[in-house]
Amino acid sequence: MTEITRDVVIVGAGAAGTTAANELRKAGLSVAVLEARDRVGGRLWTDMIDGAMLEIGGQWVSPDQDALIETLVELGLETYDRYREGDSVYINAAGELTRFTGEMFPVPPTTEKAMVELIDRLDVMVERVDPDKPWEHPDAEELDRISFEEWLRRQTDDEEAAHNIALFIAGAMLTKPPQAFSALQALLMAASAGSFSHLVDADFILDKRVVGGLQQVPLLLAERLGDDVFLGQPVRTLEWSDAGVTAMTDTMTVRARYAILAHAPILYSRIQFVPALPRLQQQLHQHISMGFVIKVHAVYDRPFWREQGLSGTAFSPYELTHEAYDNTNHGDERGTLVGFVSDREADDVFRLPAEERKERILESLSHYYGPEAKNPVVYYESDWGSEEWTRGAYAASFDLGGLVRYGADQRTPVGPIHFACSDMAGAGYQHVDGAIRMGRLVAGNIIEEARS
């Protein structure tokens, strides 16, 4: 059993953990980063699959993500624009495909009017939401009591408009059915991106990618930490008191003044706390759960959809694959499509044998792009739901009523134990930007405390 002593022990080597560790080191504090996986990155993972570089986890950079952009510049990483030249496609409830340009889906005039009204209404509401304190919204109690689906039903009787607006939050972001989270949780998601309009605008929210993959952020940050990052070290027990903490893995013991849990909150239960966490945290953590989405990668010998004048951007709340994009790598002659299958649809297809699931998903992509989409040279499904140290995607959110009841307590330290991950960010919530912001915030808090 290896025993070491540090100022701070950090559990998790994702973007939040590696950011916090670097900030602490700059301030002269010693760190040890314990990572359960055999790799650095957490929910960022760029890998070679059958000769194709795939972004298995997070990948996009939005223009409002200042913390991430600053980090990319500081690390010397380059970005490039997501391919978006040509027409997007939309499939309605009748299965009819329409090509279009711009942000608004090609829907009947009455549906378009309803969608515009809903977007405007949501934008006005979002202006009153502080993403760091959504529970302080004047109508927070009421908004957290009703599901987003119920809120939409109260606003409009246009089913297609409601389905499309729900798609941007439920399918594309929280990856939960719209009846499973509150209207306030939906407003937080929008406020974290600046507005609901930003979530509707794929050219904003999915603006750029990183040359070589986004996992380079935590990898390069971890590189700077050298031998202070320990892989394959799931923390089994965390003893704590006002005097400090002792983190124990199967082969290591780290004694420190502070601990940062820099991983998804649903994994706190994997650690035995001695003494147990206070009653408030025990309750809080039972009201948070991960969403679930399959990220589908299909690589072709060329980006054939561009020959048809298509951008690769596709949407439909009625398709198995509810959205898809051109995900071709920088400088790659081959073409890559990425599609997403969320929540209940993902549950259903994972009940099928792998080949049948693949066939169903590629069939859905072919509805957007034509029969050529059925024959990729590489096919891969990112299944974070079965990943032991993640257990869902993209991130965690509260159940109905949970945000108002417990949201303010998510980040509150317990003695020397601090919490940092994208799941509890305000700006950049559920994104790498939020993870970096939380890593910086918690590191700053510890530095201030250590100096006082």
From TrEMBL:
<dbReference type="InterPro" id="IPR050703">
    <property type="entry name" value="Flavin_MAO"/>
</dbReference>
<feature type="domain" description="Amine oxidase">
    <location>
        <begin position="16"/>
        <end position="447"/>
    </location>
</feature>
<dbReference type="Pfam" id="PF01593">
    <property type="entry name" value="Amino_oxidase"/>
</dbReference>
<dbReference type="InterPro" id="IPR002937">
    <property type="entry name" value="Amino_oxidase"/>
</dbReference>
<keyword id="KW-0560">Oxidoreductase</keyword>
<dbReference type="InterPro" id="IPR001613">
    <property type="entry name" value="Flavin_amine_oxidase"/>
</dbReference>
<dbReference type="InterPro" id="IPR036188">
    <property type="entry name" value="FAD/NAD-bd_sf"/>
</dbReference>
<protein>
    <submittedName>
        <fullName>NAD(P)/FAD-dependent oxidoreductase</fullName>
    </submittedName>
</protein>
<comment type="similarity">
    <text>Belongs to the flavin monoamine oxidase family.</text>
</comment>
